[in-house]
Automatic annotation (TrEMBL):
This is NERD domain-containing protein. The chain crosses the membrane at residues 16-34. It holds the Pfam family NERD. Keywords: Membrane, Transmembrane, Transmembrane helix. The keyword Transmembrane applies. It comes from the Bacteria.
Length: 228
């Protein structure tokens, strides 16, 4: 357990002091304006909740992802909620004997998943034409194939570690451009709206037990080392 001194050392208290002070100021100002200490307390509490929600969206288990515009961080925030329902999650994992990185490896009751998160220009439309994905006039098939190769490598490595075959479902979570679908399977990869990651995870067809989830998670931790 962290001590008060360790909290100061890590800057946690110092980061929160200005926010708490702002909440107190808001409480006093609103209370004076409405001549009600109850209204003031409510305003201060609401401001504090807002700070907590905003901070939780910015926090990341991977320090390199703390950039506010990071697509990986936005997906990570959604996966943090799924962890409350028994899903196990790994972020920024490297393929030992291959190229590329799996942004998010997830295993839960509905199966095992490998998601890469992408932020693309929202001004350009996203469309599927003859089994090819275009972002504006630019083909994204190479990126889709990379995501599939990463998932297949993870599938092979984990299966070898467990001594039995498992399936890993590949996906690209896209933030930015509008899409005519929540998720669409193309070239063996699910192309999903970035904000619909949780909904997509619940669409898995597998039915894993808690023991199987833990086995796959531990195997993935071993054969997919962290990037950072």
């Amino acid at each position: 357990m962290r001590t008060y001194r360790s909290l100061l050392k890590h800057g946690v208290v110092r980061r929160w002091l200005p926010r708490v002070a702002a909440c107190l100021v808001a409480a006093v100002v609103v209370g004076v304006l409405f001549s009600s200490w109850r209204v003031g307390v409510t305003a201060g509490a609401a401001a504090l909740v807002g700070f907590i929600v905003y901070t939780s969206q910015r926090q990341s288990e991977v320090p390199q992802w703390r950039k506010p515009s990071s697509a990986q961080r936005r997906t990570e925030a959604q996966l943090r909620i799924m962890q409350r329902f028994g899903y196990r999650v790994l972020h920024a994992r490297r393929i030992q004997d291959g190229n590329g990185q799996i942004d998010h490896f997830i295993v839960g009751r509905r199966g095992a998943f490998a998601i890469d998160s992408e932020a693309w220009d929202k001004r350009l439309p996203l469309r599927n034409k003859l089994e090819k994905l275009y972002h504006g006039r630019f083909s994204k098939n190479e990126r889709i194939d990379e995501a599939l190769a990463e998932a297949r490598n993870a599938e092979r490595l984990i299966s070898e570690e467990l001594g039995r075959p498992i399936k890993v479902r590949a996906a690209l979570a896209i933030y930015g451009p509008s899409m005519p679908w929540d998720s669409h399977r193309l070239r063996g990869v699910d192309i999903i709206v970035g904000t619909k990651v949780r909904k997509w995870l619940r669409s898995g067809k597998d039915r894993l037990t808690e023991e199987e989830i833990e086995e796959i998670y531990q195997a993935a931790k071993k054969v997919l080392p962290p990037m950072y």
